[in-house]
Amino acid sequence: MKTSFRYLGLNAHAAWERLVQEHLNLLQKLTNIESAQVVLERQREDTPAFRAHVVLVVPGPDYHADAADHTLTAALRKAVENLKRQIRARQTKRRVNGKSNLQLGNISSRWSSALASH
Asked: How is domain 2-89 classified at the CATH fold level?
């Protein structure tokens, strides 16, 4: 997984990049991440001052999360939790749709065989 970082209003720190990478490795267990774009920002005039914006490039539609908090760590944690919810929701939706498509396939094959016999 390729990860790109942008810092706005603060200096880059290796510790933050390690923290982000740890979170991304956990998300990698849930879905296949091709690349990640992470923007960490500090806005001195706003409250809360720290923002984390994360885009995960995956097969299919990408995942996007934006979170703000009073510390950079908390903002990042909120963004990652948002991404986890999105990933799990999409996986659940696929399972549900897969079942319904399978059921519809069985029903339609019954109808087509019933019509063919007449």
From this structure: Double Stranded RNA Binding Domain (3.30.160)
